[in-house]
Design brief:
Layout: E1 6-8, E2 22-27, E3 30-35, E4 41-42, H1 46-54, H2 69-96, H3 99-102, H4 126-130, H5 141-154, H6 158-162, H7 171-178, H8 186-189, H9 199-212, H10 224-234, H11 243-247, H12 249-272, E5 274-284, E6 287-296, E7 299-307, H13 315-329, E8 334-339, H14 343-355, E9 360-363, H15 365-377, H16 380-396, H17 400-409, H18 422-435, H19 437-444, H20 447-451, H21 458-467, H22 470-493, H23 504-518, H24 522-540, H25 543-551, H26 553-556, H27 565-578, H28 582-596, H29 605-613, H30 616-623, H31 628-638, H32 654-658, H33 663-687, H34 702-709, H35 754-757, H36 767-773
Parallel strand pairs: 5-8, 8-9
Antiparallel strand pairs: 1-2, 2-3, 3-4, 5-6, 6-7
Helix pairs in contact: 1-2, 2-10, 12-33, 13-14, 15-18, 15-22, 15-24, 16-21, 16-22, 18-22, 18-34, 22-23, 23-24, 25-27, 30-31
């Protein structure tokens, strides 16, 4: 949008679900809305028109061609609820105002979902910015009846009001004639400000979850609230689906919905390329499954699961299985196959690359980074710091009084940060403790702590010594300086926001650069570099990583001096392997020259500014029109991932599927797994990679945080200290500290350290100059 548009935040009072999918701008005195998916601007028509646009409902608004399927269905469901509520309110209104049917009395307006803005007094109105009630809960016959009844009651004598209850002929009897329950209960039925928190409803939900033994973090599902909304739209008395319904038409509808999503993604494979992710999963000690997921710029899709228990150690069988999936997806669409880092996958992957010249094999980058953190944690001085930090948290998290006290002093933030891997949890927790250093020191020096019974215990005295020890915090700071670049790199390669291929090479460079800067003695930083290089050896010479760095304008134009030969060689290798037509190869080489000198559209001021703001693939799509062949190749490379997914696989009946003996039931379970896995992937992409449940005490995080919260025999001398009901919940809005700097932004800057590139500046060959000569 032009610079004349001023962003306007959507206030929390706007409860219509469509507000989550638009941006609001002010252009002078006019307010306009912009769809976040297709960037269409609406200069009038209200939020109802936006909702029709997102629901792809033709009529008052153009349909959105980029809206996700789940959003489109949610908007359609909301529109349907409006119609249902309007009908119900009209019926009630006709009962209350029977003369309205004959046209003698104008019935109150039953629905004002338009939420007009602009000249009609919508968001331009100062009143609208302060409060915007749910459109479904505006003035209607029920509220009119309640208001009339209250006015009627207020006109009666004070003596009657002092008796405590209205007479049977007053409000209650009027309400009973229309609804069958006292009007005092209407407050629970007509939402206030569009939200309700009914304890009885919550108790009913909890009772159901306890009965079926479901993990309690299921309420974090993005589909939980839409389910409640759909039920609420139908009112009381709705009958739930039967067991056969869930196994029958409902499952079929869900499968069709997911396949529709998959068709949308598969159409992008030929244009933007895709990666096949081979995920190893062991639901039981004697069972090994391989899950095949297809990643592309439009999203990740689960393809199928295969029992690989008898073939995981056989390179030939493993190769045949992966080859079958490549052919199913189409080898011309596949740029790479990402697998775990074990030797069996390495052998099968390299053989696959020999069989298909246009397909690369890539080990999982996230796994390699986790192994680096594991190796660093074994270093004696680092391990000692970890144990000291754990001694603090083990005491705090096993006494409810101390835990509550700590959370008050840290404003609801926890010291332990759960993650998928315990090695990542270790270092994230040390980093969190360093960030909360002053809060912890304020805690142990407070009068509240001094007066506490627990401050006199043996473990508490040790905590006081550590938290007050300057050398302890120096060691913690040194650990954070060492591992933070690797945590940042891990965050980048597992990001759901941006494909990592254009950033991973720069991420490794920045990690080694940071270690060299913080540990200036060569023998020190080379020790840590060796740990990184040993685990990164498989990735070191991957052409896709080098090409991603070369094609990312943010980094390419930041290079100081000659382009490192490894980067240029990787770019050339990708051109030769991914483009089989030699004529196209020659055209791409010529177009590389235009890119190198920022000729044509590449040199526009807009393009220069956009190097920092646009995704690399978007930058090429926008400004690469003068180099169409190179642009197509760049978009395919830059749109790829570098790691396997972090999708939670709990409760997906993968092992049950393998043990099913009936072919019909096996097919039904296969469809259920297909649907459930893909819904999880979609949910991960919507919510990001952060864990749903960040509470360290939750049993779902036990495997990664065990050493940080494990109880000891001496921890629970006082029975009252283990009262879980006395624990105050961590802050919902501050479950983790937010970095003010985006991980991707921290990768910017110059790239001029040839020791990191693995070459001496004077020994750089002339491969970079070959680009200009060809």
């Amino acid at each position: 949008m032009s610079s004349g548009f001023e962003p306007v935040p959507v206030t929390s009072q706007k409860h219509d679900p469509a507000w989550k999918h638009v941006h609001m701008y002010k252009d002078g005195d006019r307010t306009q809305l912009k769809c976040i998916y297709c960037a269409k601007i609406f200069r009038g028509g209200g939020i109802h028109r936006i909702k029709e646009h997102l629901a792809c409902q033709k009529g008052n608004a153009a349909t959105c061609h980029h809206v996700p399927l789940d959003v489109r269905q949610a908007m359609q469901q909301s529109l349907d609820c409006v119609v249902v509520k309007k009908g119900k309110k009209q019926k009630i209104g006709n009962e209350i105002f029977p003369s309205a049917k004959k046209g003698t009395i104008k019935s109150p307006r039953l629905n004002d979902d338009m939420d007009r803005f602009g000249r009609e007094g919508g968001v331009n109105s100062e009143m609208q910015f302060i409060a915007n009630p749910d459109p479904l809960d505006r003035v209607d016959p029920i509220s009119t009846l309640m208001t009339t009844a209250r006015v009627s009651l207020s006109t009666k004598s004070k003596e009657k009001r002092k008796r405590g209850r209205p007479s049977k002929n007053s409000l209650a009897s009027v309400s009973a004639n229309t609804h069958g329950f006292p009007v005092s209960d209407l407050a629970h039925i007509v939402p206030v400000n569009g939200t309700k928190a009914n304890p009885e409803v919550h108790l009913a939900i909890g009772r159901f979850l306890y009965d079926i033994g479901a993990p309690l973090d299921v309420v974090n599902s993005v589909y939980f609230q839409p389910m409640l909304d759909a039920i609420a739209c139908e009112g009381t008395g709705i009958v739930g689906p039967s067991h056969q319904d869930l196994r029958g038409w409902i499952l079929k509808s869900a499968v069709d919905e997911v396949k529709s999503d998959m068709d949308y993604c598969s159409r992008a494979w030929a244009r933007s390329g895709c990666s096949i992710l081979v995920e190893e999963f062991s639901p039981g000690k004697e069972t090994t499954l391989l899950n095949f997921v297809i990643y592309c710029s439009e999203g990740s899709m689960f393809l199928k699961s295969v029992n690989a228990t008898n073939l995981i150690d056989d390179t030939d069988l493993l190769f045949d299985l992966i080859k079958e999936v490549v052919e199913e997806v189409g080898d011309k669409n596949v740029l790479q196959v990402i697998t775990p880092n074990e030797d069996c996958f390495s052998a099968a992957g390299k053989r696959l690359s020999d069989t298909y010249p246009t397909v690369y094999w890539t080990p999982c980058a996230a796994s390699s980074i986790v192994l680096m953190l594991e190796d660093l944690g074994k270093i004696e001085w680092i391990n000692a710091v970890l144990e000291q930090c754990k001694s603090i948290t083990r005491f705090i998290y096993n006494h409810s009084v101390v835990l509550n006290m700590m959370r008050r002093y840290t404003f609801g933030m926890d010291l332990v940060v759960p993650d998928v891997s315990p090695h990542v949890t270790n270092f994230k927790s040390v980093k969190r403790m360093v960030e909360l250093k002053h809060n912890l020191q304020a805690l142990v020096t407070s009068q509240e702590w001094v007066d506490s019974y627990y401050s006199k215990k043996e473990g508490a005295l040790a905590i006081l010594d550590l938290i007050s020890d300057h050398s302890f915090w120096l060691s913690c700071n040194q650990v954070v300086q060492l591992i933070y670049p690797l945590l940042r790199l891990l965050s980048i390669v597992t990001s759901e926001k941006k494909p990592a291929m254009g950033y991973i090479y720069a991420g490794v460079y920045r990690a080694k650069e940071s270690i060299k800067r913080d540990f200036r003695k060569r023998e020190e930083y080379l020790t840590y570099w060796k740990i990184i290089d040993d685990r990164w050896e498989q990735h070191q010479q991957l052409p896709l990583y080098a090409a991603g760095f070369y094609l990312n304008p943010k980094f390419f134009y930041s290079l100081d001096g000659d382009i490192p030969s490894t980067v240029v060689s990787g770019m050339f290798d990708c051109i030769e392997r991914l483009v089989s037509d030699t004529n196209l190869q020659d055209k791409i080489i010529k177009e590389l020259n235009s890119y190198k000198v920022a000729a044509g559209d590449f040199g526009r001021k807009m393009a220069i500014r956009a190097r920092e703001s646009l995704l690399p693939s978007e930058w090429w799509s926008t400004y690469g029109g003068g180099c169409p062949n190179l642009s197509r190749l760049a978009v395919r490379i830059l749109g790829q991932s570098c790691s396997l997914t972090r999708c939670k696989r709990d409760l997906i009946p993968l092992e049950q599927l393998e043990n099913t003996i009936n072919s019909l039931e096996h097919q039904r379970l296969s469809d259920q797994v297909f649907t459930q896995f893909n819904l999880r992937l979609r949910q991960t992409s919507q919510k990001g990679k952060e864990l749903d449940n960040m509470d360290p005490l939750s049993v779902t995080n036990q495997s990664s945080v065990a050493s940080w919260i494990a109880k000891k025999e001496s921890c629970l001398e006082d029975p009252g200290s283990s009262d879980w009901a006395a624990i105050e919940s961590p802050s919902l809005n501050q479950t983790r500290l937010k970095s003010s700097i985006d991980e991707f932004e921290e990768l910017g800057g110059e790239f001029d350290d040839y020791e990191i590139f693995g070459a001496v500046k004077g020994e750089e060959d002339t491969l970079a100059d070959n680009v200009e000569s060809q």
